[in-house]
Amino acid sequence: MIRKSFIAAFLVSTGVVALMTPIVLGLARKYRLFDAPDAERKVHLQPTPRLGGLAIGLGILLPIGALGFYGNDFSSELHGDAGRLVAFFGGALAILALGVFDDLHGVGAWGKLGVQSLVALLLWESDLRVHSVSLFDTPVELGLWSLPLTWLWVCGFINAMNLIDGLDGLAAGVAFFASVSLFAIAQFDGIGFLALMAATTAGAALGFLIFNFSPALIFMGDSGSMLFGYVFAVSGLWTASKRASLMALALPMMALGVPLFDTTFAFLRRALAGNSPFHSDRRHIHHQLVDFGLSHRQAVLLLYLLCSMLTVGAVAMRAMDDYRIALWLGLLAVVTAVSLRRILRRRSQTDDPM
After folding, report:
1. 231, 64 contact by CB (below 8 A)
2. Phi and psi (nearest 5°) for 292?
3. Could you count the other beta carbons within 10 Å of the beta carbon of residue 116?
4. Which end of the chain has fewer beta carbons closer than 10 Å to its terminal beta carbon, N or C?
5. For 3-57, how does the pLDDT look when each residue is reduced to its tens digit (9 = 90+)?
């Protein structure tokens, strides 16, 4: 049964972002806080206001914080995890501040990684970590290996969402579908705080899409994309700490399959080319779809379709507690991607002037 608290959190989050985004948009225009076009790694052609992550941050954090003061059965559950809740808010504010500073002044890749690493350490110290995993019903204690795993998990999710933010409405849509997956999974596992985070994140993503879908009036910036990634990272750690199994780690990864797949191959591609893994380029999956001839909207809607498939797969895998669903869905995704690539390549070759 879906609690009224989750519905209220979703509606409040959507409303807060829908109300605050025009205010942020007005301030960005007044002070000329624009994301300038860059043909080398960006696709937009006109300077576009940014800092939408401020509205997203309020939409995600405000409903959760309000439940900490509003007395009901659910807020009592939150108080029972007060240490983790404080760590969650502390890390969220640090990531949001890092993103805002980066949007305004720019932060190098190593600077971002440094702050993200400190946040990962904060979560680990607050017991938001993977203590053990269950292999064939046999628990395997990770010990100190949980620290590098937590670091990789947190930094990986944050940067995956950051890198997928390359087309109007793409990152917000990916966040919405992933949130739906995690909300359904939280219902199966009975993890209230995970369901609450998923509800507020879905609401924030939906509220921002009103202004961010192509043609975008405002960008979320690194402040928004990194915050989304952080919330998903914490969601996975919270689930894994409650349910020590590979399934608990696999489901969040499946829900965010598109950005994680894109980021992994981007890092491998750059490393094989002899470049830094953090070297920006225009060879992400969304860039390639546009280069193949799809419009920005078509590319985004196609990736929405892939995200919806992963959403259904993640929920089905948890409902049936069967890894084979993930294997079949992965095979289907590979076949679909290869077929689509061939179709688009032929289309681009046909459209080329002779």
Report:
1. no
2. -75, -10
3. 26
4. C
5. 778 898 999 999 999 999 999 999 999 999 988 776 566 666 678 888 999 999 9
